Amino acid sequence: MNTSQIFSLAGTIAALQWAILIILPKWKITQWLIRRPVVPVFLSVVYCIYIVGFFNTPGGGYNSLQQVRTLFADDHLLLAGWVHYLAFDLLIGFAIIKSSQEKHISHWLIIPCLISTFMFGPCGFLLYQIFKNFKKQS
């Protein structure tokens, strides 16, 4: 498979996982997938393959914005970066679901947090922290 095909596969699998988190958060299969993070593990394997296999880009690194830009100019490492986002955002989504269910926060309030986490990562996490603190105060 080429990088475009891996990108599509990873995105589709992550989107399906997000869909069941949003639509069916208490479904036994959703709960099983949260306890056994199969999708994030799969995405982590993809990430490791690409980061280990292609990290030797001349001029690339993490010490400056220019080095990061150089890394992401390579499609293989751009894919690795994207899959990194997918895996970690999904793990944050799992944590939001677990926390909200433990704290008995309405899933209707959690849906915007999940969608924001899927689309904009930390923004959804921040939104959940705000809702969680309002719930704690009430």
How are the SSEs ordered, and which strands pair?
Elements: H1 3-23, H2 28-35, H3 38-54, H4 65-72, H5 75-102, H6 107-120, H7 122-137
Helix pairs in contact: 1-3, 1-5, 1-6, 3-5, 5-6, 5-7, 6-7
Question: How would you briefly describe this protein structure?
Answer:
The chain is mainly alpha-helical. Helices cover 81% and strands 0% of the residues. It has helices at residues 3-23, 28-35, 38-54, 65-72, 75-102, 107-120, 122-137.
Looking at this protein, list some descriptive labels.
single chain; mainly alpha
Question: Your description of this structure?
Answer:
This protein is an all-alpha fold. The protein has 7 helices and no strands. The N and C termini lie far apart (52 Å). The model has no long low-confidence stretch (mean pLDDT 95).
C-alpha termini separation: 52 Å
Helix content: over 70%
What value does the average pLDDT take?
Answer: 95
Q: Could you tell me the strand content as a percent range?
A: under 5%
Number of strands: 0
User: What is the number of helices?
Assistant: 7
Structural class: mainly alpha
Q: Sum up the overall morphology in one term.
A: globular
* SSE ordering: HHHHHHH
